[in-house]
Amino acid sequence: MTQKRAAVIGFPVKHSKSPLIHNYWMEKYKIDGLYETVEVSAENLQLAVQKMVSEGFCGFNVTVPHKVSVFNLLDEISDTAKKAGAVNTVVIRNDKTLFGDNTDGFGFVANVKESCPDFDFTGKTAVVLGSGGASRGICAALSKEGCKEIRLVCRSKEKGEALVRDVGGNFVIYEWINREKALTGADLLVNATTLGMDGFDGLDISLDSLNTAAVVADAVYVPLETKLLKQAREKGFKTADGLGMLLHQAAGAFKLWFGFYPDVTDELRRIVSK
Questions:
Q1: Which 3 state secondary structure label does DSSP give 233?
Q2: Which element (helix H / strand E) includes 8?
Q3: Active-site annotation, residues
Q4: 186 pLDDT exceeds 80?
Q5: pLDDT in tens, 91-120
Q6: 124 with 236, same domain?
Q7: What is the mean pLDDT of residues 122-129?
Q8: Of 8, 30, 154, 1, nearest in space to 88 by CA
Q9: Taking the CA atoms of the chain, what radius of gyration do you get in angstroms?
């Protein structure tokens, strides 16, 4: 039987946790396969994709800077990826055609449901900080899950308006300076910016106006407990960390390639968070 191969492509890509995650699952489920890193510059993207198709890869993950430019190389794109404005997973079908999807939003929702099983998105008010790629996937998922209102807090009004136009749903845009006002009575707060990540500025925000039963989630996973999550935990809010989102979006990609959803275990969390 031919060895199954998958990869993550990006530039740079050495920092990616994806090989660690997917090779763990391949070993766990006794799949004869290998997940690799393929560093690809923008000008070599088409050539690299053609090479993976010709070498019999079953698919690949896409990270920066190719999440948008890869659109032009695909035969079919999911509605989720279109709304998110980015592709993070590509399936190479048996007939060599390419299907692009985005599992970021799925990973976010699955992680919140696992971390806070009593939380129901339906009819809730969510606040999302940021209007970049991560925010798009999360906002599309929140809209799909039935949130009553999504308050989008962003520095660029133009990017925010473009996101709302592409994703659709009941959005209210807030300027960054009014971020704490946006939290008033909200049931869910999501940090979809790089603020709080190691090497970046911290996120300066008071959580006092959130609904007392609110959930606070962070897409940042380095450090594992960000200042925002620590602040939320100390105030008694339920939290969902960025590592869980990373693992569940990876699990969504794994299912697209291999046909089943792998377990996101405590052991895997420990391995990836080292």
A1: helix
A2: strand 4-10
A3: 67
A4: yes
A5: 999 999 999 999 999 999 999 999 999 999
A6: yes
A7: 98
A8: 8
A9: 19
pLDDT digits (tens, 9 = 90+) for 213-239: 999 999 999 899 999 999 999 999 999
Structure tokens at 106: 């799925």
Q: What is the C-alpha to C-alpha distance for residues 110 and 126, in angstroms, rounded to an integer? A: 16
In the predicted structure, residue 78 carries a pLDDT above the cut 90: yes
Domain total for the chain?
2
CB 134 within 8 A of CB 84: no
- pLDDT score of 148: 97
Cα separation of the two ends of the chain: 34
In this structure, the answer to whether residues 167 and 80 fall within a common structural domain is: no
Spatial strand order in the sheet of 89-92: 33-39, 4-10, 59-62, 89-92, 98-101, 76-77
Helix ranges, the chain (H)? 18-28, 45-54, 79-84, 104-115, 133-144, 157-167, 179-182, 227-234, 242-258, 266-273
The whole-angstrom separation of Cα 263 and Cα 274 is 19
Cβ neighbors of 269 (< 8 A, separation 6 or more) are 243, 244, 247
pLDDT tier for residue 184 given thresholds of 50, 70 and 90: very high
* C-alpha–C-alpha distance, residues 33 and 264, integer Å: 19
> Rounded CA gap, 61 and 200, in Å?
25
Check residue 226 and give its pLDDT. 96
- Helices 133-144/157-167 angle, 10° precision: 40
Residue 164, domain member (yes or no): yes
Amino acid at 195: L
Paired tokens of 29: 């489920």
- Domain coverage including residue 93: 4-102+245-273
Average pLDDT, the chain: 96
Give pTM, 2 decimals.
0.94
